[in-house]
Design brief:
Layout (H helix, E strand, L loop, with lengths): L9 H52 L15 H4 L2 E8 L5 E8 L11 E4 L4 E2 L5
Antiparallel strand pairs: 1-2, 2-3, 3-4
Length: 129
Amino acid sequence: MTPRNRGFTLIELVIAMVVIGILVAVAFPSYQAHLIKGYRAAAQSYLMDVAQKQQQYLLDNRAYAGTEAALNATQPAEVSKYYTVAIAADPGPPPTFTITATPKAGTMQASEVTLSIDQAGQKLPSDKW
C-alpha cells in the first residue's frame, strides 16, 4: 500500500475560488448601496444641523445667513467629499432660505438625488428623507 498525499486537488481549489467569486459578486453591490445610504444620511444630518443654525441666526439677526461661515458650520469630511452644499438666502419679506446638497460628479454619490431643506422644514425629495 502506498500512502496518499494529503492536500487539495486542483478541482477543489477551483470550486472554492468559484464560491468565493459568487459571494463577492453578491456582497459588493450590497456593500456599496450601504455606503451610499450612509453618506446620504450624513448629508441629511448636516443639512438639518445647518437649518437649525439658520433659525437661531434669524432670531439673532432678523435675517438668514447666506454662507456656512456666517453660521459657524463646518462640513464633516463624509459630506464635503461627496456633496456640494449651498445656501440660498432671500431677505424677503418674509425671509427664506434653501439649503441644498448636490452630489459631486465622479463619486459614488453621483447617481444620487439633490437633497434640500427650506425654512419651513420641507425636505425634498421626500422619499429620500
